[in-house]
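Researcher: Quick test of sequence recovery. Tokens follow.
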């Protein structure tokens, strides 16, 4: 015959909490994965996939493909003066760039890369690193009037071009940092020889007009060459005509 046993409760029994399906769904909805309305979110560019799209990895690890990149220039067809060209901008962010993603209508199927980036850690040569981060990349910008700006991130060369409708009356300004030169070129007809060019570099200043006359200004003096090849050279102590007749001061 079994003996009677006395059971003493030192602590009242508690029900073990179980995560219900409703609770799990609520927790999922509160995350960036389950939220039915997605906010702005930071991401990293993993790959360039087209003229204006990139693949993105969001901060939560989710990867999305072919995300369009917003333009900082107004995009509108046929807005460039006297032409059917569109205004807009091609400026894809480099791989590994930190970018801000917006989800149109709050859904993950409609993302866009905003022209906004951010720094995680500031380092002493940050700008130099950014300039070299994409060796093949160029920033191309066309405004509403048709002016085109091309910036080479690798060399630092900057080129401004006026509207080039039929290559008529086009002005080009080129600033070449590596070669230490500035070139202003004015082409005023479809003929490539109809142009005036001014070059400023370490050798001085030179000007070539559309007729073939050339003017050179350097540390040694001034030299003028006409379209027939005749020259006048003026130095600090002499003046030469065609390199032969010399007038001493």
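Model:
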């Amino acid at each position: 015959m079994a003996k009677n046993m006395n059971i003493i409760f030192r602590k009242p029994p508690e029900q073990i909490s179980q995560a219900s399906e409703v609770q799990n769904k609520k927790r999922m909805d509160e995350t960036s994965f389950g939220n039915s309305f997605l906010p702005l979110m930071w991401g990293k560019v993993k790959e360039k996939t087209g003229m204006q799209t990139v693949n993105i990895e969001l901060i939560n690890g989710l990867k999305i493909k072919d995300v369009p990149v917003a333009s900082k220039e107004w995009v509108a067809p046929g807005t460039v003066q006297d032409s059917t060209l569109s205004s807009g901008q091609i400026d894809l962010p480099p791989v590994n760039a930190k970018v801000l993603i917006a989800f149109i209508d709050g859904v993950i199927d409609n993302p866009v890369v905003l022209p906004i980036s951010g720094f995680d850690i500031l380092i002493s040569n940050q700008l130099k690193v950014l300039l070299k981060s994409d060796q093949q990349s160029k920033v191309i910008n066309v405004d509403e009037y048709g002016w085109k700006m091309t910036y080479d991130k690798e060399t630092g060369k900057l080129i401004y071009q006026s509207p080039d409708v039929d290559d008529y009356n086009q002005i080009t300004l080129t600033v070449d940092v590596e070669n230490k030169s500035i070139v202003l070129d004015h082409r005023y007809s479809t003929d490539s020889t109809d142009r005036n060019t001014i070059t400023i570099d370490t050798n001085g200043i030179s000007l070539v007009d559309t007729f073939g006359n050339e003017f050179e200004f350097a540390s040694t003096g001034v030299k003028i060459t006409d379209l027939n090849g005749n020259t006048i050279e003026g130095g600090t102590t002499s003046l030469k005509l065609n390199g032969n007749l010399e007038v001493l001061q």
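The chain has two helices and 18 strands.
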